[in-house]
Known about the structure:
This protein is an alpha/beta fold.
Amino acid sequence: MLAKIALSSSAIKDLSKGPLAHQKKYHREFTELLLRHGVLVFGSEEDKTAFRRSIQDGDGIPIASRQVWQAIVAEFEVKKRLTVICPPGVSQFASLTSLSDLYDAWKYKTNIAVVGEELAQAMKLDEQESGVLEGAALEIATSITVSEGHIIRSLDVLAREGKLKYGQSREAFWQTVLEPLAKCTRNIVITDRYIFERMWDEVDCDTSRESPEHISWLLARLDATLLPHASVKIIAQSRRSGQRGKPKWGAPETARIVSDKWQRVERGSIEQVEIVLAEPRGERPHDRHIRFGDLAVIDINAGFDRLCELTVRQKEGMRWSYAYSPGSIKDYKTAAQSLEARPSYKEVVIR
């Protein structure tokens, strides 16, 4: 759901051209795009500092837009969405003067390079129908045309459709939806009342054949992707003795099975997984989601067990939704805390 965007300071200034109403519109649309899908990458610490300074000074940016920009910079700092990748060769964005310079420095290092109007004219971007030069190694656009490029349009369509169809691969879902978010965080909270049911049933049946399951698959990928010193909390509902005629499972036993099944990668990022089993109540709300710290939430309405097999086997597929606004994330956090606040049993799987 995220794309790496290399952004020149001159590209921000281009948003402040024309009537004031147009300037506000351009700034609003571009900052909303960044909130939805952007990870800002810089070729050097100097570029990153210059970007922050240009936002802080607000040179030519309408006052209301400047406040939005300053809030985004502060939020992106906290959420690890401002990064320096130091590409080889020419790293200072301001020193780039040609298409070949840009490609040599940034191809495969970022998904999108957003350039200023002067460089865009030199590259003849205005001759492209969408104002975007699209390529496998790098997409080049201006701050006005970037939303018309293939990458942002594809991410918007992906979020709008929000469905993994019957027969589609869970690996594709991981790579396009979950992995880009996991790369930017170290704190994961998974909330799904019934996430352990399949695993419990497998052990209850004492089957000698390993059944497909989703918990160890997801943990393995998070372990290989999250920022260092990461933690994962899984909040579920406990199963009382005799509930639906099935034996009770506690947090220690559940943690032991998770530890046994989880094939950990060498030098993985996860330091601990906390299992929280809350006492069930009469209501049966379907709150199933994975929260990537304060960065974003992916809500999976039908539950994570739709990802237990290599491909989705249910004819109706798997619906999901993407939440990224601070207000929405706060609501999901409150819902998880409400479930955890019930009488609960906790156990930590320690690496």
